[in-house]
């Protein structure tokens, strides 16, 4: 079995643990130097372990924020049994993270120890050789005298910090870095991809409505149980990262919260969860949009796909839970045709039937992702593009009416991932949407962009003509 450092490309794994509402997520964001984990006064906001690459005292680590340890978990059923089962799942993920971590930072709150603190400290005793204790919310020396009593529990040193205000964070970082082995770290291995296509990481965001199987798919692809899977909708709150290799390609996966309609979002935590899910598109190349195969395509699915397309992301429409569909001839063909009929704007997006539960369709999904990723990073030479443009203009010349007449002078590809082309014309205002669609379709058909969104901008030499954009 691979060691933790091998799994994370040589980066040591640092886990932040403790009971709910002691400030683990605030400390995670402080060490990461960005707002990544959701913070809220409501206890138990963090459920899945949330990990990210961070620099601690200038050294690269994989930092993990875990769910809070709760003592009052019921076992006898009742109205709260679903939440109790979810708490058990959160605790199990925390325990698994602790077991594989290279260093565990126990976050406590200034004041008297609670039963949860004491039980968790007892659980951590076998890991004392890789344990640090940090007492949070001690800004300005508040309640430090009580915090020093923790030394009686066997800690060699206790770090007094304020994650909110940054007090003594540098001392804690130095202590963390001093306890880790960085000799296995691979320079740049966990960061962005600056090399060629072979070295480029394929970044995928898994999006969709609640309870469509996003976390089940994430766990299957990464070969882990990092994302909590529950029948209760809305289990995932933060964006959960994972990684895996397939056919020599490195994938980075972002498992996100389910996106509901705005009118159904009723609390702050879900609001931030949905925003993080949508923002994950900015950090991805591709979107796996999970659709419940039994329910079919919904208006909300269309909105999510449109958001991804507007950002130039490749979108795979994934019909999940396919194992529950009738196993008769042409079931998939009928489902595909129905989507194409009701969602013609995404006619280029691949449709894949999948069962995240059984693994059916996973290979086709990943092969499709590799092809789409290659298209996103395709650049067409200007000479080749304009040779193709001459052919298109011969086959379908622009309109010749007095108000619709324009000349297409030349074209260039200005970016990849997202893919964008600029066409220079005599009169941009005269270029109607149907002709834009014609140019876009020929780009897809003739130049190798059949699976991804393509943006076209029309520019004119006339100053009074505004540019036109079209996907």
Structural class: alpha/beta
Number of helices: 13
Mean of pLDDT:
80
Helix content: 25-40%
CATH topology of the largest domain: Rossmann fold
Question: In total, how many beta strands?
Answer: 16
Strand content bin:
15-25%
* Overall 3D shape: elongated
Q: How do the strands of the widest beta sheet line up side by side?
A: 2-3-1-4-5-6
Overall tally of structural domains: 3
Low-confidence stretches: 1-8, 38-46, 73-82, 187-195, 229-236, 260-271
- CATH homology superfamily of the largest domain: P-loop containing nucleotide triphosphate hydrolases
**Topology as a string of helices (H) and strands (E):** HEHEEHEHEHEHEHEEHEHEHEHHEEHEE
Q: What is the CA-based Rg, rounded?
A: 26 Å
So, CATH architecture of the largest domain? 3-Layer(aba) Sandwich
For the sheet with most strands, the description reads:
6 strands, mixed
